[in-house]
Every structure is written in structure tokens, then in C-alpha cells.
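Order emerges. As here.
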Amino acid sequence: MSDALLTLEGVHTHIGAYHILHGVDLSVPANQLTMLLGRNGAGKTTTLRTVMGLWHASQGRITLAGQDITARATPDIAQSGVAYVPESMGIFSDLSVKENMLLAARGARTIDDVDTKRLEWIFDMFPAMKKFWLHPAGKLSGGQKQMLAVSRAIVEPRQLLLIDEPSKGLAPAIIQNMIAAFRELKAAQTTILLVEQNFNFARQLGDTVAVMDDGRVVHSGAMAELAEDSALQARLLGLSLGAHQ
């Protein structure tokens, strides 16, 4: 796809003796939100970690904005404008919300160096970040920690966000807040590759979708088409999105 920001071509990943990815082909269009779906153990998290350079592809090619990043180190990929929000969120529990945000703003030495308008934009999406600005991050609720993890990823403009299961374990009201925030990010033309198990979340947000099984992408296309095709949902995922609305 000519409008793809990120492409994976025939990507294999081994972790020790285990062969996890078996020739992943994936295209992530620029300025869209691509959902990466599949059963547990299908290879979704490994795909994100391989893009981020945390695990290296043993075969195949990964390109970002036309540049080959297959063998690059994680700091170099981050410097290229890629942010990764792992399932574990990866926040620093002993540091305040403010200190967590400052660490994520690579070009800032003090919080005064961070773009004030961008911080206000983040506060509008996640008011809890402003409310608990000076509180230790470890004292936040699970939903607030997830908000902080996403806020850190967007404290500076990024080319690409890689986000692993942002709704996992969250209360329905917090999930709706997260959906609203991702809609804001989409409106700002942020390119996002998002792994998710909550299919209602996926249906509401995805522009495009790729479904993985056994370390391969077995389906890709428009999210709306998958959301409307119960037979395809059952075949690919073993369930219907409609049952999770």
C-alpha cells in the first residue's frame, strides 16, 4: 500500500528456541487506527515488540516511512518517532505523574520545556492526569495508570503509536473514556497499531484490521467489513463482535 506508514514483509521472530512469528505480512496505513486481533498466543504482542526492536526479526523486513528499521536498536526506533505502550503499561510507580511525563518527553529537561498546549490537550482527554499531577503513579487506579501510559506516549508528537490491550481490566466507564481519547487521537491524524481483545472497542475505533493466527496474518481489510460479517468473525475469531456490544 502506497499510503502505508509501517509495513512488515515476511517477518519471522524467534525467542530462544521458539519460533513465534511465521512470515507476518502487515500494512499500517498512515493517519489511521489499525486493529490487530486474534486469539491469545496468536503472535500479536510479539509483532509489536518486533516492530519496536525489543525482539529482532530473524527473517523478513520492517519499514517505517520507507526506511528499513528491521535491525535497528529500540532507542533508534523510538528516536524515529515510535512510541510503545506495553500491556504492563511500564510506568514508574515511585515517580509522580509529572515526573513520568517528563521522562517521556525526550527533548525536555524540565516540565517547562514541554509544549503547554499539548499538555492541555492531554489533560482535556485525561483529566485525571491533571488532578493527580503530583501524586505517585503507583497510587493511581488501574484505569488512571493506563491513561498515564497513553499520555506518556503522546506527550510529544509521534509518527506511530504501538499500543497493547489498553482496555484490559478496565471498568466500562473508563473504557468509554479511553475510546473517546482514541477518537481524539484519530482526529489529530495519529497513526496507531493497536492490539485489543475487547471487540466492541475494536469495532468502534478501527479503520483497518488485521487478524493473526499461529504467528501469521490470516485476514486484513476494513474494520467495518469484519464488524458486519458474523460468519467471518466466527471463522477468524471464534465469536461474533455483535455479541460483545
The chain has ten helices and ten strands. Residues 39 and 238 are 9 Å apart (CA to CA). The domain at 1-81+158-167+186-245 is CATH 3.40.50.300 (Rossmann fold).
